[in-house]
């Protein structure tokens, strides 16, 4: 209805709706951890429903995200549910075309601009290799329900309106989601170690950021800015994360990353193993060959 009046009026509804979709994704995320409800069945049902709304299959994302938690910061076990990250030495050893591919992937215009399109239309529309029957069926069910839901909306409201409104809501929420996931682990003094030196607690507290946001954004993002708490206690639902943070002086006093400081993470591309920090590609270029 707003679109029939003005695109700008529609945008005034699209932006907050995108925020609500981010919050719905956090509920989905908590259900994947069996954390939002006490009962397993309730988490699976609500997780599947919110997965349809956010375009993510519950079973597949749940299993992939569990691997992310078990391997976050482990240089020996990268590649599942994380941002593609190379060390300075690994990047130096790549041929030109692989370096170019990595540079393109890490470019903000690609990562945040095309990333949501790739995730929603391709990445999670197919089952992963080795997926069990229950996970595969959940992916098929999610896809069928998404197609059915979009078809009904298109029939009732018009395809142009649905694509413009729902597509924009989904895209903006996807950009915000990728940004949150990025900044939660891609900051200068994060934590990366190889298998023989990797520690779960250090990876959780030191390798996950405390992203301090204004209260209204903290609510929209379901307290996921307390990411160090979430990785330390993934079974804690989002509505308890702030309370856990405030209840422990060691956790409460971890360095916080504000929005302005978080923008600096956009220039980080490579992990410097020797100095234990993220650096940009300029750092590599300035190193003697």
Quick description:
This protein is mostly helical. Helix content is 63%, strand content 4%. The protein is globular and about 60 Å long.
Chain-wise SSE layout:
Blueprint: H1 2-5, H2 7-32, H3 40-54, H4 58-71, E1 86-87, H5 88-92, H6 96-106, H7 108-121, H8 133-157, H9 159-183, H10 200-205, E2 210-211, H11 215-220, H12 227-232, H13 238-247, H14 249-252, E3 256-257, H15 259-262, E4 270-272, E5 277-279, H16 281-286
Parallel strand pairs: 1-4, 2-3
Antiparallel strand pairs: 4-5
Task: Outline the structure in words.
By secondary structure, this protein is mainly α. Helices cover 63% and strands 4% of the residues. It has helices spanning 2-5, 7-32, 40-54, 58-71, 88-92, 96-106, 108-121, 133-157, 159-183, 200-205, 215-220, 227-232, 238-247, 249-252, 259-262, 281-286, and strands spanning 86-87, 210-211, 256-257, 270-272, 277-279. Strands 1-4-5 form a three-stranded mixed beta sheet. A hairpin with a 4-residue loop joins strand 4 and strand 5. Helix 3 crosses helix 8 (133-157), helix 7 packs across helix 9 (159-183) and helix 8 packs across helix 9 (159-183). The longest helix is centred in the N-terminal third of the chain and has 26 residues, at 7-32. The protein is globular, with a radius of gyration of 20 Å. The N and C termini lie far apart (61 Å).
Cα radius of gyration in angstroms: 20 Å
Q: What is the makeup of the main sheet?
A: 3 strands, mixed
Amino- and carboxy-terminal Cα gap: 61 Å
Strand percentage lies at under 5%
Q: Tally the helices.
A: 16
């Amino acid at each position: 209805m707003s679109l029939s009046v003005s695109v700008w009026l529609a945008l005034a509804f699209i932006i907050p709706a995108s925020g609500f979709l981010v919050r719905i994704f956090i509920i989905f995320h908590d259900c994947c951890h069996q954390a939002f409800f006490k009962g397993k069945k309730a988490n699976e049902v609500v997780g599947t429903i919110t997965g349809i709304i956010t375009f993510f299959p519950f079973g597949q994302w749940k299993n992939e995200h569990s691997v992310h938690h078990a391997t976050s910061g482990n240089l020996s076990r990268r590649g599942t549910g994380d941002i593609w990250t190379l060390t300075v030495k690994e990047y130096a050893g790549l041929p030109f075309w692989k370096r170019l591919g990595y540079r393109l992937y890490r470019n903000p215009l690609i990562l945040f601009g095309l990333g949501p399109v790739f995730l929603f239309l391709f990445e999670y529309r197919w089952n992963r290799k080795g997926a069990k029957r229950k996970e595969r069926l959940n992916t098929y069910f999610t896809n069928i329900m998404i197609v059915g839901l979009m078809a009904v909306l298109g029939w009732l409201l018009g395809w142009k309106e649905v694509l413009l409104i729902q597509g924009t809501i989904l895209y903006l929420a996807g950009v915000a989601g990728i940004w949150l996931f990025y900044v939660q682990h891609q900051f200068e003094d994060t934590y990366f170690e190889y298998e023989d030196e990797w520690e779960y607690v250090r990876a959780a507290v030191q390798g996950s950021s405390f992203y301090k946001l204004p209260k209204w954004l903290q609510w929209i993002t379901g307290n996921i800015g307390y990411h160090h708490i979430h990785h330390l206690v993934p079974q804690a639902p989002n509505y308890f994360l702030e309370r856990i943070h405030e209840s422990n002086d060691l956790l409460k006093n971890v360095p916080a990353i504000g929005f302005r400081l978080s923008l600096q993470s956009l220039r980080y591309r490579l992990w410097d193993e020797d100095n234990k920090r993220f650096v940009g590609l300029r750092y590599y270029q300035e190193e003697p060959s």
